[in-house]
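Quick start: what a row looks like.
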Amino acid sequence: MTAVRVIVEGRVQGVGYRAWVSRQALSRNLSGWVRNRGDGSVEAVFAGDQVTVAAMVEACRSGPGLAVVSNVRQEPWLDLPPPGFSVRPSQQ
């Protein structure tokens, strides 16, 4: 089991990005969460097997149809989230 935190930059708010991430993560049986950040980016934590987590991070580079992703930053996340995936309130 591995976990990562990603920050996705670009036009990723107001285009259904969080809902898309949630659906993608659930379909891959990943745990974690996603939320909008006050700087216009989207932050997410994904936990699961290493191959599936890596595939999810790669999928974040494109996102849903209306998104325009300019950058995806990734770092290890030490606290494994509980089972399931949630959309958290936006961070200010």
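That is the whole record. The mean pLDDT is 97. The two ends are 30 Å apart (CA to CA).
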